Amino acid sequence: MKEKSRRQFIKSCFYAAISGLSPAFISLCAGCKKNEKSTSLPDIPGHENKEQPVVAGTAKNNPDFEPAYLKLHRSGELKKRGKELWDIMESCRLCPRECGASRLDGNEGFCHASSQLEISSYHPHHGEEKPLRGTGGSGTIFLTNCNLRCVFCINWEISQGGIGEPKSIEDMADMMLELQKTGCHNINFVTPTHYSPHIVLAVDIAAGKGLRIPIVYNTSGFERLEILKRLDGIVNIYLPDFKYFDGEMSAKYSSYAETYPEFAKAALLEMHRQVGVAKPADDGLMYKGLMIRHLVMPNRVSGTKNVIEWITENLPKETYFNIMSQYRPIYKAFDYPEIARRITRKEYNEALKWAKESGLTNLDIQGFPF
Ligand code: SF4
Question: What domains appear along the chain, each with residue ranges and CATH number?
Fold first, then answer.
């Protein structure tokens, strides 16, 4: 089956599958009108730098919080940075793949993204870390396609199957405002790297219309410093994975990304420089900081011990570290016998032991669910 037909087929299957989900989720998936494919930088309306009233129902947990991106919106810096990022898509170097795709001409890169924004769904998410989900949920926006492309991706239909609809930057800004109005505590961009220009431009529009909640950058960690530096002052909470310590493993399971560990380590240091240690505020919610996720994999594939040691040696002991136990084989993982099973209780416990012995003090321990 040709690649485009294959993706179309997966898309049909996915929407057939979610037809059993709640009507609210479906309406959010299909809620925005479809847009014609467009690859030129849209004329961004609403950039008159006028302060708008806070949308009713927002910021109810912490009315004193003012995100740093507002200042950049007022000065015009947000729009400027969005345009700079946009231009990088001419011969794309938005991520460490640096595949050079001419996305502005409508071509797709290694990640399968052109300059046309595609979004799979947006909704309040109650399964994220407690300081992110609170009571109102984390306002997730699931972006289609991915630059890392792991064989065990739990969201593979979205990241690699092409599930999503073309949306405009204005659509995404409206989604953010809707999530805020619904009572979400933050806007959580899931797999944002390849659409970072669109995100910055959408935050600029939304900020002008009353967006006041924190921005969460929920990334695989496969990021370039040059791009992250342009997000300084825009992202409030970095939520990166630290997936592997060994480049042989990242090459094997994440589409030849043998440089993943070195890019992820540099990215974590830069993220920490920008937002510091993540500590919940008095209301229990997170407004700023670096929150690292690490998925424990079978047969020590993800290098948990080395990951923990590196964090201990290079970041403060209070760095937020979530040791995730939910790995399950899915998608192409069954082609690799060593990762074709869940982790054992013993494997999770040894990861916990390493973390506790390391002296890290801000561990998020989910427990072993099976
Ligand atoms: S973001 Fe996509 S198109 Fe750009 S360099 Fe990475 S893989 Fe290539």
Answer: 3-34+52-365 (3.20.20.70)
